[in-house]
Automatic annotation (TrEMBL):
It comes from the Eukaryota. The keyword Amino-acid biosynthesis does not apply. It catalyses: Eliminative cleavage of (1->4)-alpha-D-galacturonan to give oligosaccharides with 4-deoxy-alpha-D-galact-4-enuronosyl groups at their non-reducing ends. Its cofactor is Ca(2+). GO terms for molecular function: pectate lyase activity. It is an enzyme of class 4 (lyase). Its EC number is 4.2.2.2. Pectinolytic enzyme consist of four classes of enzymes: pectin lyase, polygalacturonase, pectin methylesterase and rhamnogalacturonase. Among pectinolytic enzymes, pectin lyase is the most important in depolymerization of pectin, since it cleaves internal glycosidic bonds of highly methylated pectins. Favors pectate, the anion, over pectin, the methyl ester. This is Probable pectate lyase F. Belongs to the polysaccharide lyase 3 family. GO terms for cellular component: extracellular region. It holds the Pfam family Pectate_lyase. One of its GO terms (biological process) is pectin catabolic process.
Amino acid sequence: MDASKSVSTQQKMMLLQVFIRSSRIIGRFISIMFCYIAFFAVVILALLESGICDFWPAATGNITINATIVVNVSKTFNCNYTRYIPNPTILGDGGTNEFQSPVFELQGGATLKNCIIGAAPGTNGSADGVHCTGAGCLIQNVWFEDVGEDAITFNGLNSSNINYTIDGGGARYAHDKIVMLDGRGTAYIKNFWADIYARFARSCGNCKDQYERHMVISNLTAYNGTAGQYIAGVNMNYNDSAIITGLKLGGAGARQMFPCKRFIGTTGPQPTVNGSDADGKYCIYNSSDITYL
């Protein structure tokens, strides 16, 4: 047998074995890379689905409070992004109890800004959030980490011309509503962010004393609302209205979230639904102005 041919055959076999081993290594590498890519794709999609890619401020510190903080008439309270945590045994645990205390109470013309409203571990949320009484208020860049029942309640009764403003900020984990309008006047809500909530805003459907109320909602981004529920709920028999522009909805049930629902309000029994289309009088919005994320 020719030695040169034998060597050549051995070299070919060695090269073939090297090629096979290299192919296996490359194959494993490709498989691993594919798994990593698939994993990160799922993570990114999950983040986008939940909405948590949006800005949420980091707390600069924590303060546990044992009594409602009252911001007096026309005064400003700047939290500087401190997290305020209500003592659940005193103010409430964020559950369904309607008689919980707020973390902040804003008197007529007061401003609350740059706050993080937290919740104690093991509770259902942050007591009853923020209440606004008297002649309106401004809530600016206030973030609710774990709403519980309601985040913001407007209770002003001074006149029918009261204006309440929410500008910026966000809320998540609302078992019921994020904004509750119990008093008189108009709530202006703009540049707000919501994630995981049942309903966004409601004019009280069965308060003992009922009034005409209005909402103007603009540039709201809301993820993961409960399918079949709504962004704004109004009582047509009390001449309420909701004007909605620049609405962005995300999450699995986004297309099953109604921008607005009309109700027949009461002073005791549960209200009944009376439509959910844009009617130009009570529910004022344009379907082409809604973006699905």
